[in-house]
């Protein structure tokens, strides 16, 4: 039986029998008369940069074994994960802040800067930081990426220099949706001489996927610079997007300030248990990277064959050119059972496709070749 059509063992009792969940495109089904959810094989989800492997065996087993804890508040499990993260990052536990996904950390970082802040972001980049800021009336300055799709740090610096009041600079590295890296030495040079009124939020959601020699974590600054916040997630390399766990690594005073904007008990018990198990599972990390490498190879080979330019990816997705109109392309892909990324203006001549299992990428490649035959891409 195909992996995705398995009934997910251990989830019994979750669903009301016979209902179809109100989730995207009928992805989650409940069998009539059954109390189990199953994941539909279609559409293939190449839209949200998820890890297609599903939870690691260690995390899955730990979660199933701990289901009986779901009625308990997560208190005791938080500290175990914080301690494990502190050991991993070689910082003190008080330098770690947990969030319900790294998205919550980004939201907290925006709120912590206060209403008079200016938020400076690249364009395009991951939308959550500008979105959270705009929602609460904080000014956002968008600086187009350079021609090589790295952050235009020089222009971002100019914007920061002419902003009065607190500044938050969001650097997504590698960047979503382009998958490209900004050389760390350039970020370091700015951090080194920036005044403390500039808060750097360096989002490293795809850190593990980046093998570019110009790339390294900004974590080295959290020992000495209270104005640097590094953001990581369990959603990507650890395949926990649905469980919602992310974190910040920062100077202890900064971490303490940031945590004031967190909801109490924001990290749930089962996510913490899965995270603790995942952190010890180096083999799963290796497997995630290998599956990603193989899927990316299938994808880029097809794009090259069709002459569709693609950006160098240091992540689990690839931004590539399409010929024709993006909403029409997305609709046609969906009609052929494949979900691809949302539009990322101003890059409306490009589509972002996440890397799924190798067989899913073969199916995507076949579909793209067929689109070409029909003159659609
Ligand atoms: C750059 C970046 N940051 C953060 C997130 C959100 O991750 P999380 O699931 O941890 O909230 C994503 C998700 O795609 C992302 O691409």
Properties at a glance:
single chain, 377 residues, alpha/beta, Aspartate Aminotransferase, domain 2, Aspartate Aminotransferase, domain 1, seven-stranded mixed sheet, two-stranded antiparallel sheet, 11 helices, binds pyridoxal-5'-phosphate
Helix/strand order: EEEHHEHEHEHEHEEEHHHEHEEH
Identify low-pLDDT runs.
1-26
Tell me the number of strands. 13
Query: What strand line-up does the widest sheet have?
Result: 4-10-9-8-7-5-6
End-to-end separation in angstroms reads: 33 Å
Radius of gyration: 21 Å
Number of domains: 3
Strand pairing plus helix content: what structural class?
alpha/beta
Ions and ligands: pyridoxal-5'-phosphate
CATH superfamily annotation of the largest domain: Type I PLP-dependent aspartate aminotransferase-like (Major domain)
């Amino acid at each position: 039986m195909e992996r995705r059509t398995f009934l997910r063992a251990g989830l019994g009792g979750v669903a009301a029998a016979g209902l179809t969940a109100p989730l995207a495109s009928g992805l989650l089904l409940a069998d009539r008369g059954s109390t189990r959810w199953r994941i539909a094989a279609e559409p293939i989800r190449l839209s949200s940069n998820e890890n297609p492997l599903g939870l690691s065996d260690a995390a899955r087993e730990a979660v199933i074994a701990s289901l009986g804890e779901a009625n308990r508040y997560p208190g005791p499990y938080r500290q175990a994960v914080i301690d494990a993260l502190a050991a991993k990052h070689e910082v003190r536990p008080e330098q770690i802040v947990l969030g319900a996904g790294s998205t919550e950390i980004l939201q907290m970082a925006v709120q912590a800067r206060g209403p008079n802040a200016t938020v400076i972001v690249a364009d395009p980049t991951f939308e959550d930081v500008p979105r959270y800021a705009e929602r609460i009336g904080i000014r956002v300055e968008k600086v187009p990426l350079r021609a090589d799709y790295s952050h235009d740090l020089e222009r971002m610096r100019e914007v920061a220099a002419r902003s009065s009041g607190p500044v938050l600079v969001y650097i997504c590295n590698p960047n979503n949706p382009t998958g490209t890296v900004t050389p760390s030495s350039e970020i370091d040079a700015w951090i080194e001489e920036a005044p403390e009124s500039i808060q750097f939020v360096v989002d490293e959601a795809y850190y593990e996927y980046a093998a570019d020699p110009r790339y390294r974590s900004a974590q080295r600054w959290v020992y000495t610079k209270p104005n640097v916040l590094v953001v990581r997630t369990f959603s990507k390399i650890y395949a926990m997007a649905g469980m919602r766990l992310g974190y910040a690594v920062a100077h202890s005073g900064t971490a303490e300030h940031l945590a004031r904007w967190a909801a109490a008990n924001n990290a749930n018990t089962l996510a913490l248990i899965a995270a603790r198990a995942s952190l010890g599972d180096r083999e799963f990390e290796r497997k995630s990277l290998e599956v990603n490498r193989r899927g990316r190879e299938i994808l880029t080979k097809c794009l090259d064959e069709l002459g569709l330019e693609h950006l160098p990816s240091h992540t689990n997705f690839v931004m590539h050119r399409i010929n024709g109109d993006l909403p029409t392309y997305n609709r046609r892909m969906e009609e052929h059972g494949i979900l691809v990324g949302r539009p990322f203006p101003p890059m409306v001549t490009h589509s972002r496709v996440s890397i799924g299992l190798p067989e899913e990428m073969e199916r995507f490649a076949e579909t793209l070749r067929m689109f070409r035959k029909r003159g659609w891409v």
